[in-house]
Amino acid sequence: MKNLRIIVLCLSTLLFIKCDKIKFEPSNKGEVIAKVFDKKLHLEDVVSLTASATTPEDSILILRGYINNWIKDQLLIKEAEANMTPDIDIEKLVKDYRASLLQSNYVERLVNKELDTLITTQELAEYYENYKQQYILGETIIKYAFIKMNKSYKSKVNDLNKLWTQNKFDSATEFAKTNAIFYHNTSDWELLNSLLILLPKNSINESGLKENLKIDKEDNKYKYYVKVENVFRKGEVPPLEYISSKITKVIRNDRKTDLIKKKKESLFELYQSDSNVKTYLDE
Predict the structure, then answer these.
(1) 43 and 52 in contact (C-beta within 8 Å)?
(2) What is the spatial distance between Cα 232 and Cα 206, in angstroms, rounded to a whole number?
(3) What is the residue range of 57's domain?
(4) What is the pLDDT of residues 223-256, one digit of tens each?
């Protein structure tokens, strides 16, 4: 506890000035504040940890937690090393992981700098026509307007009924915005189930759904109104607008793959005659 307080004092004044009140183990990286076998945690490694602390006590809690977790991690690593199976080539794994990180970082910067992310309406339409059979619907999708009225407000229900039966849907939806207990109208495609859960059970026969169909149902407390704007059934090809975001991702990913491939080919051509690049297969 005393040592931690002195460490906190060091950190809160000048972190790289030697603190003579505590016996740190010397190291070429600076003062050592914890050690597990040959692994060492240095004072400079914890410089930024206490920046958010408002009191020395908070700093002590932060440091103690960090140091204890660091010790536990090192002990686990030590145990893993002692129990490592002979078939694991750690050096190769580290080498491969380093190479993967380097490539990933470079590719990310390359993509951000050179990838054309603009996709025209024509490109979307062409891709859709060529590959739409790959996007067959697994569930029915629907566009609809939904109104739920409380039957205890009879006059309001009667007013809406008149508009509904006269096919004055614009007026009905405006009326619903201020008088319905729930109103939903979206221009986006939704799964049919999003509508079914709003209605009493067995209110809709999926096979009977069609464009511009209107439905009204009721139970003991509520009356429900549905206007089907459009529907595409399970097993059908969906409209372009429903899968446009997916197509956009596919096109961009294809462009990214092509960009990386071309970059590799250009580097291969550039260094093919370089003395630093050799193949001994044909020698």
Answers:
(1) no
(2) 11
(3) 2-82
(4) 999 999 999 999 999 999 999 999 999 999 999 9
